[in-house]
């Protein structure tokens, strides 16, 4: 490449910065220029995504264009002194007027209008500062200068301002602002000259190729130097180095005319915290373990080569070629901008390397600020006009800004490494502490162990000594004892053995006694054998006796029945005697008949009356035959009370004969007699009727009939109302007969028979009491039989109905008929264990004992004794009372 360097010298790289040969980032192209334009034109989507709130609505994203007027240079001051400037600026209106002639001009509006008096600082703030701020926020930004040769592009962008800092251009000021917020940037600086890309920081790389990522559209320059710069001074040195390598030539219009497009690329990395956290928050990093977010921005500053008419620049030969190449690339840029401005579907990016390199700066994702530089000279009105038109079209191009953020895994890894190392160190320290602690504890343990061993050995020794001492003492004692024993043994050996003789004597005595005792035992055993034999014989005797006893009892029962019959007859006779006596005493005429009739009644008389009785019996029989039973029975209902009572007496007498009883009952006599108990108020009639019923009640069939016709209730009622002992005796006799029927036990009791009997004891008359006792004895006998046969269970109904008290009280009654009946009743009751408890508590046991000992009748005595001995309850009670039942 044959061109002069702008400052005429080549500077070597002597920068205190690290360098990288790789160009790691490039331009990120939008997917389609038109689509991005359309989206941006419809609203502020890009703005809101990028957060560009500083921009005025509707302008954001659009390429911002400022126009800067260079002051007249010395030549223009002299040659154009008489001519007015071709432009008139109205900065307050952001307008520029381009004169056509003295009276006419075209007016253009720009984003900024910078007069010839605008300071470099002002130009930076208006043109570049918003872009720099964007870059620091993670966007790509482009600042570009376009204009005719010598109008101040390099002055605006690249002025280093070594002598005068106020003269510093946009590059220096931009990096200064970037360094204020981040301490590391990477810089590449290239120039495009005659369609060749050369590395300005390493001019040997003079044919760099453009790489386009087919997926992302990113453009990179892999061969270009990427130098990390850490301070402003180093950057200025780099700029100086790059500027030194820039092609420049002395043109008509500019003695230092840049003949290449210079492109400075500043890569900025700025860390931001996750979700707005402070990036330096170490605790946050530890907690989330997420890498910090890094915003990567890239600032591109493009100092285009001057646009000029070839004729005007006076270019010829190689310079002409340069000028052609420059114009070609600038016109390609112009075409692209036109296409973008017109929203054309085709943007001819590939027409030149310049447009390929800058494809992202116009219509891409970068924020772009363009400064067009113009001169005041009317002679260059045409170039000025063309520059203005370029700027006007560029104002129509809209970009779609995109933020570039990525996670900083490297920095996270570094931080984690540091943490890991710190943790390892901490762990090692802890390990050390633990080991020290363990050593300390084990030392302590060893010490304690040796102490314990020592004290154990000491106590062991003490024990051993004590034990030895005890042993010695024991041995001494034993030896002493041994000596004593020896002495004793010696003396025993010498003494006559008196004790032994004594013992022998005792032994002989004992042996003798034992023999005697053995003989005694033998004798006793013989006696026992003999006794057992006699017991067997005795048992046979007992069985025989028992048999006899039972026969006796049977015989007795028969006799009792006979006695009962005789008693009834006796009852009747005594009744008749009473009646006769009463009638004789009253001297009543009718008494003769009554006496006659009464004398006929009883078949059984006192022995002295036997003969006359027979006679009476015959006359009653005669009357019976002559008058007829029906007639006599009808007289029972006669109106005359005397006739009625005589009729009853006749019936009563007839009823004493077993042969008449059936006839009387068949003829309804029993019913009539029972009716009289209720229909008559006369107690005499009650008495005689009850006597007749008592006679009829001697027959078992009649007993059942009496019961079935409510006889018990009627008799009970009669007993209740009666005052005369004889009436009560008749009633009690009737009930006593009924009590002797096994079948009627339950009904009799249920209908109040027992209670009625007991109620009659209110009359103390011994005849009444004897009948009550007979009834109780009869009932007890039947009950006992039923219990033995298993028909009845449970306690005696006599006891249930409260008879026991009276029984016990009268068991030793002085009247023998009463006493005998009660003694029998007690024996019957005592035969059943179920009654034993009540009998014991009711005092009956004492009476039984008495009966077993004192009863005049032997059979009853034996019965009582047997009963006592067979009842376990009585036995227990007797033992308790220390009484012998025998
Ligand atoms: N605003 C200004 N104030 C004072 N001097 C200026 C101004 N602009 C430019 N100059 C001077 O004008 C001359 C040309 O400027 P510069 O080299 O920056 O122009 P250029 O546009 O870069 O030209 P080329 O395209 O040929 O490189 C320089 O001497 C420069 O100092």
Give a written overview of the molecule.
- Interacts (via C-terminus) with NEK5.
- Its main location: cytoplasm.
- Keywords: ATP-binding, Coiled coil, Cytoplasm, Cytoskeleton, Isomerase, Microtubule, Motor protein, Nucleotide-binding, Repeat.
- Residues 1-57 are annotated as: Disordered.
- Residues 62-397 form the Kinesin motor domain.
- With 886 residues, the protein is an alpha+beta fold.
- Among the domains are: 4-51 and 119-407, Kinesin motor domain (Kinesin, 3-Layer(aba) Sandwich), CATH 3.40.850; 412-494; 742-886, Leucine-rich Repeat Variant, CATH 1.25.10.10.
- Helices cover 59% and strands 11% of the residues.
- It is built from 34 helices and 19 strands.
- Strands 2, 3, 7, 8, 9, 10, 13, 16, 17, 18 and 19 form an eleven-stranded mixed β-sheet that branches.
- Helix 14 runs antiparallel to helix 15 (590-601), helix 15 (590-601) crosses helix 16 (610-627) and helix 21 (683-696) runs parallel beside helix 24 (725-739).
- The longest helix is centred in the middle third of the chain and has 89 residues, at 498-586.
- It is elongated.
- Residues 1-60, 275-285 and 588-612 have low confidence and may be disordered.
- Adenosine-5'-triphosphate (ATP) binds at residues 70-71, 73, 147, 149-155, 254, 256-258, 305-306, 373.
